[in-house]
Amino acid sequence: MKNKQKQRKTLSTRTIAISGVLGAITIMLSVTGLGMIPMPSLAGRATIMHVPVILGAILEGPVVGAFTGFIFGLYSFMTPVGAIPADPIVRILPRILIGITSYYTYVLFRRSSLGAVMAAIVGTLTNTIGYLGLATLIGYLPWAASLTVMVTQTPFELVLAAVLILALYKAFKRKANPVFDDDETQEDA
Questions:
Q1: Calpha distance 137→12 (Å, rounded)
Q2: pTM (2 decimals)?
Q3: Each residue's pLDDT tens digit, 34-73
Q4: CATH of the domain spanning 2-188, picked from 3.90.420.10, 2.40.30.30, 3.40.50.970, 1.10.1760.20
Q5: Which alpha helices (H) appear in 2-112, and where do they start and end?
Q6: Tell me: the pLDDT tens digits for 172-187?
């Protein structure tokens, strides 16, 4: 009976609403250009559009993280930019996995500040390696181009994501969000 109650909770109104809001923030970051931070790299900018996906995973769990990642991936699929065409495997799958890998990394580090930072790192690597790796495996990009972008772009994106997630994590923790109640979080594990 308890398992059935937990299954119903995974697609609650709260889950859908938070996923939608975080997905909308991701889309807003893309549409306005605020999600692309100018950086001294070959691409000239680093993305933070995956940060709401990581935040959703940390605050609400893998379902919200995956659903928010799906919204991010679907938007990327519907508005392809650059050399990689609208391929759902490349544009959607890695974005869903951001939420899942981030959540379990956060849990692995006992839902701590370090866990939040590690979740940001793993989520960012999931996005970068998943997106560029799949694009390369399918043949949209040569390996040399993918590796060059990964090596020059990833350090900036890792630092940006870690700093933003840590700041947001601490802000939510200070507000005594029920997400950080030890009794509730232990049940989710």
A1: 37
A2: 0.85
A3: 999 888 777 778 899 999 999 999 999 999 999 999 999 9
A4: 1.10.1760.20
A5: 2-10, 13-32, 51-60, 62-78, 88-91, 93-108
A6: 888 755 555 543 444 3
